[in-house]
Design brief:
Largest sheet: 9 strands, mixed
Oligomer: single chain
Helix content: 25-40%
Number of helices: 6
Structural class: alpha+beta
Mean pLDDT: 84
Signal peptide: 1-32
Keywords: Signal
Number of strands: 11
């Protein structure tokens, strides 16, 4: 996909965001619509297993429970790593890439927990891609959070002008147009899964090409273009 230049503007708050879901406990998560769950092609790409080849959401969670032990110990499975705290686990090593993977596993577990365990798994199709509107909505939401909360302002990457490049329809990057290589700030967007009119997105922030904070977004398509329904973690 060719580069698209963005001019981010703060949106009307009623359009930007619905209700933020508390993410402290798996039992508080609302289940996504029952049906086929379309798993993104980049879901856990470091694993030897192809998650898209598994048959159900429950099989994916079982595989996640096993695979996370390669990167962090101290968590018995997805429910434990989501409930946290994250620093209760012991990483395999202190490398930045390992930290990014562990944060990503936690977000994948959060997303999977919001779907029907019996739902069947398939590959994504039309309607599950990362769009310019989705990226704009997520960044505008981040800008709003940073403006309202000091903790978020110190954590979230927000910038008003950027360039979008996509490797495929399920993975895109927004980069600050500062003339530097790599840019001072960039944000990666990866499709975790899609079900019904909702998409779950893995958002990875980077500073000078080095990954840092990772969070998840539940995005719902609507007649107005779409909105952020919830994020995880919803508080630091």
């Amino acid at each position: 996909m060719s580069s698209i230049y963005l001019s981010m503007r703060r949106k009307n708050r009623d359009w930007l965001i619905g209700t933020f879901a508390a993410a402290a406990c798996l039992t508080s998560f609302a289940l996504a619509e029952t049906g086929t769950v379309r798993i993104g092609a980049h879901f856990f790409p470091t694993s030897e297993h192809r998650y898209q080849s598994l048959r159900s959401v429950s099989e994916i969670q079982d595989q996640l429970n096993a695979d996370m032990q390669q990167f962090v110990t101290g968590f018995s499975g997805c429910p434990a790593i989501v409930e946290g705290p994250l620093d209760a686990g012991k990483p395999r090593d202190p490398l930045r890439d390992t930290s990014t993977i562990i944060q990503s596993i936690r977000v994948w577990c959060w997303a999977i927990a919001q779907t029907d365990p019996a739902a069947q798994v398939s590959a994504p199709g039309l309607g599950a891609e990362i769009t310019t509107e989705l990226i704009q909505g997520i960044m505008a939401n981040a800008e709003m959070l940073a403006a309202e909360d000091e903790d978020w302002s110190q954590t979230l990457v927000t910038f008003t002008d950027g360039e979008i490049t996509c490797t495929d329809q399920e993975r895109c990057r927004l980069s600050l147009l500062d003339g530097k290589n790599p840019p001072e700030q960039s944000v990666d967007f990866d499709l975790i899964m899609a079900t019904g009119d909702e998409r779950f997105i893995l958002v990875t922030q980077s500073i000078y090409g080095r990954s840092g904070f990772v969070y998840g977004v539940r995005w719902r398509e609507s007649e107005n273009g779409g909105e952020v329904v919830s994020i995880f973690p919803d508080r630091l």
